[in-house]
Write a structure and sequence with these properties.
Blueprint lengths: L6 H12 L1 H15 L6 H13 L4 H12 L9 H16 L15 E6 L6 H14 L4 E4 L6 H14 L2 E3 L7 H15 L3 E4 L9 H17 L6 E7 L5 H13 L3 E5 L9 H9 L3 E5 L7 E3 L2 H8 L4
Parallel strand pairs: 1-4, 1-5, 2-3, 2-4, 5-6, 6-7
Antiparallel strand pairs: 7-8
Helix pairs in contact: 1-12, 2-3, 2-5, 3-4, 4-5, 5-12, 6-7, 8-9
Length: 312
């Protein structure tokens, strides 16, 4: 799932624009704090507050404030210098987790299970990933395991048509584990490279839906002990702190191996990605800043760190 060279500049521009809400809150807070003011304990405490308000998380905010203060007490420091220091600290947190989604060619079909709550952009993300895989010449099967929503099944059928992927679907309300079972059987029969399984957008506090997700995982493992080979959680950036509890719940139930974050273009809470990276250390494979196929791209730590503080 490599990124094309020509997609990057356009995507960087969209990312910068998309993170404007997050960046403007952070940037104006920094400007207000550091314009004609010497750096002291109060300034650093106020900086921590600005960083926490941007959803960067308490631990990360404290670490960044400490780094900014190092060797600079009682000195005047320019807002742009502070932005650069913060970007460097954020990049250091994000670099270890910025890892592309790599499909093991030895696992054929590679089983990718997609999880997440309703409205996170999960089904759309599946469609975009399928489009990229098809463009790379991969044979893809989609399994419409979000049987709770007729709209999700229809949406996935549209993506299958659009991308030339095969699809396995049943009627709304059908057993999701049965759909996953059929999907793997078809992927094997077709000699497909990748099977992507959609799942119901369960809220993490709905016990019966989480039990169903466990069953999907169990059924896949029965057919293929190593499956699912990747469990990717799709998170909506606009939910802010709630995303942290989603990561915890889905890790527990489905053994999440990586993350995709969507809707970074509509939020003032883009910093939550940093808080999640610091707390969980899970790979962040892709980020989304819009509806188009090219608006989902591999996650780059430096680009994100600079965009979030408003640096070009």
């Amino acid at each position: 799932m490599s990124d094309t060279e020509n997609a990057r500049p356009g995507f960087w521009k969209r990312l910068t624009q998309g993170l404007t809400k997050t960046a403007s809150g952070l940037s104006s807070g920094i400007t207000d704090l550091f314009t004609k003011r010497k750096l002291d304990a109060d300034t650093l405490e106020d900086l921590e507050d600005v960083l926490i308000r941007a959803d960067l998380g308490v631990e990360t905010a404290a670490r960044i404030a400490e780094a900014v203060g190092k060797g600079r007490y009682d000195k005047t420091i320019e807002p742009d210098e502070v932005r650069a220091l913060i970007a460097a600290e954020i990049e250091a947190v994000l670099k270890p987790v910025a890892r592309p989604l790599v499909l093991d060619a030895a696992a054929k079909p590679f089983v990718l299970l997609m999880v997440g709550v309703n409205g996170s952009g999960k089904t759309t993300t599946i469609g975009k990933v399928a489009a990229k895989l098809r463009a790379d010449g991969k044979k893809v099967v989609l399994a419409a395991g979000d049987t709770f929503r007729a709209a999700a099944i229809e949406q996935l059928k549209v993506w299958a048509d659009r991308t030339g992927a095969a699809i396995v679907a049943r009627e709304p309300g059908a057993d999701a584990a049965g759909v996953a079972f059929d999907g793997l059987a078809k992927a094997r029969a077709d000699g497909a490279d990748v099977l992507i399984v959609d799942t119901a957008g369960r809220l993490q506090n709905r016990a019966e839906l989480m039990a169903e997700l466990e069953k999907v995982v169990r059924v896949l493992k029965k057919q293929e002990p190593d499956a699912p080979h990747a469990v990717v959680l799709v998170l909506d950036a606009t939910v802010g702190q709630n995303a942290l509890s989603q990561v915890e719940a889905f890790r527990r139930v489905a053994g999440v191996t990586g993350l995709v974050m969507t809707k970074l273009d509509g939020t003032a809470r883009g910093g939550i990605l940093v808080a999640i990276a610091a707390k969980h250390g899970l790979p962040v494979h892709l980020i989304g800043v819009g509806e188009g196929v090219d608006d989902l791209q591999p996650f780059e730590a430096r680009d994100f760190a600079r965009a979030i503080v408003g640096l070009d």
